[in-house]
Amino acid sequence: MLERAIEFLKTILNQGNLAINLGIVIVCLASELIVIGWKKSSFKAIFGKDKSVKTDLIMTALAVFNLTNLISLILSFGLFQVVSKLIFDNTNLQLALKIDNLYLQFFILYLISDFSNYVGHWMMHNVKPLWRLHEFHHSASSFSVMTRYRLHFVEIAVGKLINAIPYAVFGAPLLTFFIITWIEEFHQLFIHSRVKANFGWLGRNLFISPDAHKLHHSVSKHHYGRNYGVTLVIWDRIFGTFKSPVNETLDLGIPDNPYNKNGFLGDVWYSMKKAYASLMRKN
């Protein structure tokens, strides 16, 4: 048992994974710095006093060192991971592998993955206990590249279960899975950056832009329930949840924001406590 635990920790702290994770973050931070300059950059914010950015930084460090998944496993008691494995073991239909054309296969799997992300994101906002977890992410009162990693540990576990379902049914070649994951990862880092961009026609009809996602994070009640898309706009268009961003200053966060005041651990605990109370219908 002890040997398995040690091997598990070695896997988590694998130096190769560390280098890749750190490299992704540095590339995105550096790219943002080049585009918007030092004064407005996430790099500069790291050295400031913004408590919201400090939480982003802690979550990013945990993600880079692959500790996020371990903490997620512990805080969720492994429940969602066990259910995910059961789904894979008892489904695993590999339907996508029946498509011979690799380009068509990739396109279909990408659409399926993105739709799954849209549904999962919608659930995080509209299922009360899940929202209590997801509001930890939305409590960011300012954006940085690192806000992408500002996800509650239990939300991460739930998200992995939601995303496991389509892959259990359709399957995916390993390379295809990694390419889709990397596209989504870089896009998520970009839309949480401080870059101002609406992508024009592409932003209205194809890809979620940084401006569209900032609108999603707006405190204003006029922006509630808008722009759930993770990379593609198509699902928001189909289900009527898209709102095109306009050139306006947005206040980010949640109404009467109780976060960013009691430290990182205090915020993690508060979110869990609210989720549990909501699950028990006490809040």
Automatic annotation (TrEMBL):
Keyword Transport included in the entry's annotation: no
Entry GO MF terms: glyceryl-ether monooxygenase activity; iron ion binding
Membrane-related topology note: Multi-pass membrane protein
Places the protein is found: Endomembrane system
Short name of any one Pfam family annotated for the protein: FA_hydroxylase
Gene Ontology biological process terms, A to Z: lipid biosynthetic process; membrane lipid metabolic process
Protein's UniProt name: Fatty acid hydroxylase superfamily protein
Organism: Roseivirga pacifica
Lineage, highest ranks first: Bacteria, Pseudomonadati, Bacteroidota, Cytophagia, Cytophagales
